[in-house]
Amino acid sequence: MEGIILSGIGGFYTVLEDSGERHTLRAQGKLRRQRLTPLVGDRVSFQPGEAGQNGWLEAILPRRSELIRPPVANIDLIGVVVSAGTPAPDLLLADRMLMFARKSGIETALIVNKCDEDSAMAEDIARQYSGSGARVFRTCAMTGEGVDALKAALSGRVHALGGQSGVGKSSLINRLYGFARETGALSEKIERGKNTTRHCELIPLPDGGMVLDTPGFSLLDLTLCDPFELRFLVPELEPFEGQCRFQPCAHVSEPGCAARAAVEEGQVSRQRWARYCELFEDMKIRWRDRYD
Ligand SMILES: Nc1nc2c(ncn2[C@@H]2O[C@H](COP(=O)(O)OP(=O)(O)OP(=O)(O)O)[C@@H](O)[C@H]2O)c(=O)[nH]1
Ligand SMILES: [Mg+2]
Ligand SMILES: [Zn+2]
Q1: How many angstroms separate the alpha carbon of residue 247 from the centre of ligand 3?
Q2: Nearest ligand 1 atom, CA 194
Q3: H or E stretch at 108
Q4: Residue to mutate (ligand 1; options 117, 183, 190; most atoms within 8 A of CB)
Q5: SS3 sequence, 6-60?
Q6: Ligand 2 centroid vs 181 CA: distance in angstroms?
Q7: CA 126 – ligand 3 centroid, Å
């Protein structure tokens, strides 16, 4: 039998069979010996259990995509949520997540939530990301504003919402799908220093898609790579490939750089470019020290 892993807690996996039935499974020793860790989102083949016993997960089918944090497979689309208010948007984190998703072959959307708090800020963020390759949505999970357009874009897809704790991921999911997921007041989060949502869980939707509720993935970090590869993860920089005086050009501080000229002329968002430079410099150091 085949199905998809919805959640995995303490070595027990909940698998949704194609017929709609749910099964509780453990991973066969064979998988553990091969060091194959089943992930939420994996399509698996399994032997169902009998009479209230757990069944056995036998094989993991090939993955379309794979993330380490959050640990999840086969996501089609990641919505990076930022807030136009509190918590103050961490756009460096948002950019890192967008790059990470792009590198993993996952489509992206940027969701500017809490538009009710500061609409000028929401507009500014939307403008910064207009060339980023991520579709931009402006929402308010409180009133439902902008949520229909987002819902249409997510329909039928396996998707996840990521972003800092407190930006309103669970609130958005509740608003999008009429769920009652636990949300938390910001002051409480700061006091507890904890995320309200603690496990990754894939939730099947009536339209055939699935949504992943995750603890805020603020830990998500770009995996180590040659800093010169980062420019390929920033769509705004693509038109300038091969157009600069030096080859390859990282589009950071090289003389005769066509991308920087475009920034000066206002064709490319200066903030997006500046954050790219920051991530480039970070990666340069990590790359240089990679054998330490
Ligand atoms: N003003 C305003 N508040 C919102 C909006 N969306 C969510 N909130 C509030 O923001 C707080 C945090 O919302 P959550 O949905 O728990 O945030 P989260 O991103 O799921 O947080 P974690 O689970 O900790 O990662 C709650 O008090 C929500 O009521 C919005 O659009 N506008
Ligand atoms: Mg949450
Ligand atoms: Zn350049």
Answers
A1: 8
A2: 24
A3: strand 107-113
A4: 183
A5: EEEECCEEEEEECCCCEEEEEECHHHHHCCCCCCECCEEEEECCCCCCCEEEEEE
A6: 8
A7: 25
Q: Which residues line ligand 1 (CB under 6 A)?
A: 113-114, 116-117, 140-142, 165-171, 183-186, 189, 195-197, 215-216
Which pLDDT tens digits describe the chain residue by residue (292 residues)? 999 999 999 899 999 998 999 999 999 999 989 888 999 999 999 999 988 899 999 999 999 998 877 788 999 999 999 999 999 999 999 999 999 899 989 999 999 999 999 999 999 999 999 999 999 999 999 999 999 999 999 999 999 988 888 999 889 998 999 887 666 655 454 444 455 555 788 999 999 999 987 765 544 556 789 999 999 999 999 999 999 999 999 999 999 999 999 999 999 999 999 999 999 999 999 999 999 8
Domains and their CATH numbers in the chain: 2-62 (2.40.50.140), 67-213 (3.40.50.300), 227-288 (1.10.40.50)
Any idea what DSSP says for residue 246? S
Nearest Cα residue to 211 out of 154, 153, 158, 156: 158
CB 138 within 8 A of CB 107: no
Contacts of 291 (CB under 8 A, 6+ apart): none
C-alpha–C-alpha distance, residues 197 and 202, integer Å: 13
Ligand 1 atom having least distance to the Cα of 195: 24
Q: Which ligand is nearest to the CA of 228?
A: 3
pTM check: above 0.70: yes
Distance of CA 216 from the midpoint of ligand 1 (Å): 11
